[in-house]
Amino acid sequence: MNELKYEFYIAGTPAQVWDTLVSPGQVKQIYYGSVIRSSFKPGELLEYVGPGDGGDETVHVYGTVLEYVPEKTLSFTHKVGPSYLKDRENYESRISWQLEAVGGCTRLTLIHDDWHPDDPSYAASDSAWWHILSNIKTLAETGHTLDFGSF
């Protein structure tokens, strides 16, 4: 499978954009009500937990922190939570966020790669990332997220 790679320019500092990626209150706004839980230490657990089929503490995504450099890089392995498996194998991929100041804005690059060829999460990820990235950009620039309605 091909890597999923997206690049956005956001009218905000790397610190402002970084907050949308790691601050629980902001993460909750961009990840459909889920919060991020992690010490952000390489080798330790990272998980997105929030409302879902498993209740308010549904683990949607989890993995292991690979790299954490504030305002620059966050990389972690990615597996879907147990409620998404429905008797199928849980494949691992990798998510890497990269931030770089460019003039008066920030270039945000997301690379979602290391996909297993049989991973059924690829198509859903490709679709969902556009919503999440649009919300990151909008939240960092305006303090609000977009209303996508039901999709």
Automatic annotation (TrEMBL):
Q: Which organism was this protein described from?
A: Paenibacillus helianthi
Cite the Gene3D superfamilies for this sequence. Answer: 3.30.530.20
Which stretches make up the Activator of Hsp90 ATPase homologue 1/2-like C-terminal domain?
A: 13-140
* The organism's place on the tree of life at top rank: Bacteria
User: What does the sequence similarity comment in the record state about its family?
Assistant: Belongs to the AHA1 family.
Record-given protein name: Polyketide cyclase
